[in-house]
Amino acid sequence: MPPPILEARDLHFAWPGMARAAGLCGAQRLRALDGVSLALRPGARLALLGANGSGKSTLLLHLNGTLRPDSGVVLHDGAPLDHSKRGLLALRQRVALVFQDPDDQLFAGTLAQDVSFGPLNLGLAGDAVAQRVAEALAAVGLENLGEMPLHMLSHGQRKRAAIAGALAMRPRALLLDEPTAGLDPEGVSSLLAHLDDLNAQGIAILFSTHHLDLARAWADEAAIMSEGRVLAHDGGEAVFSNEELLQTARLRCAPHRRAQRAPGHA
Ligand SMILES: Nc1ncnc2c1ncn2[C@@H]1O[C@H](COP(=O)(O)OP(=O)(O)OP(=O)(O)O)[C@@H](O)[C@H]1O
User: Which part of the chain is the ABC transporter domain (predicted)?
Assistant: First the structure.
């Protein structure tokens, strides 16, 4: 098995104010991450599954160095992350995170301007930047929309634009937080096809979701998060067929039954 590109080892993390909030509402949960370990290997197709609030986004923010753990360590190619400005710039050329809400990521006037931000920041020359922008837009099927103002793109197009911005850094690992949220079925299938192409080019892909069917359809391996812990990380079917595990992680629930109306009730 190849060594991991990224590895989280025993991460603990509490958001500021979490303990106080837990006290106020009587909750038991004091930390967003409670001893998380997870490895992402070259070429992986890994789904990070968990119910709302299980800690997926918090973990992804640790994997790209945005957050620093209270304890534990994230390794990139076997070395602890360097959180200096220079270290993070180097990391983000290798590991790109795409946020759940594209509007947290996109900010420049036109699509092409936005996607060129990362390469420009690397100090690349104009031709090299243009080349990267063209490649990234083509990889997500937005090659004809480069001059479009961002606010004129649909939500699905903005999701793909955010991925293009990440790809322009030519990463080896792409971390996607709920990439299908807000997409219609056609948008989901087109996004998965783009992810297939990227993975075929050797990019390791980790995406978070709470949709079991989606994870089952796309991923080779799955990690299940619950209450700030990784309960299991294994080949897809070993995880997806473990009903007890899926129920513990609140990824399966009893079907909703509509209440019966009283006889004679109009
Ligand atoms: N900015 C924040 N400030 C304080 N607490 C936060 C913040 N972001 C997340 N949390 C808390 O951290 C825990 C984990 O949240 P996180 O967003 O990582 O979960 P998630 O699995 O990504 O959820 P979702 O599927 O709803 O996006 C939750 O208890 C949440 O309330």
Answer: 6-252
